[in-house]
Prior knowledge:
Layout (H helix, E strand, L loop, with lengths): L2 H72 L3
Amino acid sequence: MGLEEIEQFDLLEQKIESLISVIGTLTEQKTTLERKGKGQQAELDSLRNEIETLRTDRELVQKRIASLLDRITECGV
């Protein structure tokens, strides 16, 4: 095996090691992003539930106010 072939193998080995390193980094980033995405989805779900609760509460308050206004009107006030 000649010197040129050895240099080519060394270069190939370096490139493969570099690719393996990049793949490892990308895999870690993917895992981190997936975790963040799940956390954000959970937060979004929580906020949606809170909005729905607030809407329900608002409707209840509106009905109670309307009922109280009706009662006041019935009293002739």
